[in-house]
């Protein structure tokens, strides 16, 4: 368990973190999500020991001697050297040598899917390949806790999928992962628990399933040429993707009612479906605002 208590961080006149209290159980993938400037990187840098000046406490005492791998938001590689030399460097920093180093370099190359590019210079790599190698560097010493700051920025879908698979494998190995992102769908796909950050504060935290159940309701989505009177209904919560979202305490019944009304009035909607709540809906419900800089 990692316990973050009453952490505050100030950069001159900017209060980047305010009274942060978070508990991260061992073995979970824990998401930190929020718009640009929410304070995710500041909190992560404090956890990784990079920012040392802050108020409050971070306690990892009941985790014994926890080793930590940090994947920074910026790619930290020596571009003029080969991928293998970069991994070897990080391995040596952590005391690996000889056969142990060779074996671990091979394992990490397999994990990040770059075995056939081991000898290539990093400057010849795509953005996604650099991101994967950046993650590999943090895994050379087989850390118990892996902290990742927006590891998928600028990567193509193939690399993103590989990174997701790698994170799931790390979780299966029992590692604790802290994953910061402003992509809600990434957090939803990967994490067990999440803390929503906004303006330097934790707005809400908990298990993703619990938050979805507490804050967001299923809704009915309908798209088509609908009578205006239907859209003036107070059940319409949002216009979305050229259609409308209707809410109800009994969404299945509403789905049936709308289908019946369409049939009666010879309306053929191009889409009529039940929409399950998403993490993004929870965030909007909590903050009452759209993400200001969400991609
Ligand atoms: N070194 C610094 N000096 C001054 N202000 C900073 C510094 N680092 C961050 N800040 C400010 O602190 C606040 C929180 O920034 P932080 O980078 O922690 O947020 P973030 O959620 O990681 O954002 P992003 O998604 O853009 O990376 C912002 O207002 C930012 O401008």
TrEMBL record:
SUPFAM superfamilies (alphabetical): P-loop containing nucleoside triphosphate hydrolases
Record flagged with keyword ATP-binding: yes
Q: Name one Pfam family in it.
A: ABC_tran
Alphabetical list of InterPro entries matching this protein: AAA+_ATPase, ABC_transporter-like_ATP-bd, ABC_transporter-like_CS, P-loop_NTPase
Query: What is this protein identified as?
Result: ABC transporter ATP-binding protein
Cite the ABC transporter domain residue spans from the record. Answer: 2-224
Q: Which organism is it from?
A: Salicibibacter cibarius
Q: Which GO terms describe its molecular function?
A: ATP binding; ATP hydrolysis activity
């Amino acid at each position: 368990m990692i316990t973050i208590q009453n952490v505050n961080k100030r950069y001159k006149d900017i209060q980047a973190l305010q009274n942060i209290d978070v508990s991260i159980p061992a073995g979970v993938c824990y998401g930190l999500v929020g718009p640009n400037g929410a304070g995710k990187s500041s909190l992560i840098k404090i956890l990784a020991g990079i920012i040392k000046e802050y108020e409050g406490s971070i306690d990892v005492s009941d985790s014994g001697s926890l080793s930590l791998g940090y994947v920074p938001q910026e790619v930290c590689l020596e571009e003029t050297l080969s991928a293998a030399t970069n991994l070897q460097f990080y391995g040596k920093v952590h005391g690996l040598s000889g056969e142990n180093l060779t074996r671990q370099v091979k394992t990490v190359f397999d994990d990040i899917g770059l075995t056939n590019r081991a000898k290539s210079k990093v400057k010849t790599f795509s953005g996604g390949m650099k991101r994967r190698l950046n993650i590999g560097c943090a895994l050379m010493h087989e850390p118990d806790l892996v902290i990742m700051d927006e590891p998928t920025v600028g990567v193509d879908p193939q690399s993103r999928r590989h990174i997701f698979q790698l994170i799931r494998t790390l979780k299966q190995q029992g590692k604790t992962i802290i994953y910061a992102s402003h992509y809600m769908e990434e957090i939803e796909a990967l994490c067990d628990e999440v803390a929503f950050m906004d303006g330097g504060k934790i707005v809400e935290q908990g298990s993703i399933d619990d938050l979805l159940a507490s804050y967001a309701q299923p809704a009915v989505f309908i798209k088509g040429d609908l009578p205006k009177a239907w859209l003036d209904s107070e059940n319409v919560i949002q216009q979305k993707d050229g259609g409308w979202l209707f809410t109800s305490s009994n969404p299945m019944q509403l789905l049936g009612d709308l289908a019946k009304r369409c049939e009666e009035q010879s309306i053929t909607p191009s889409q009529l479906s039940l929409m399950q709540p998403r993490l993004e809906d929870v965030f909007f419900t909590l903050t009452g605002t759209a993400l200001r800089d969400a991609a």
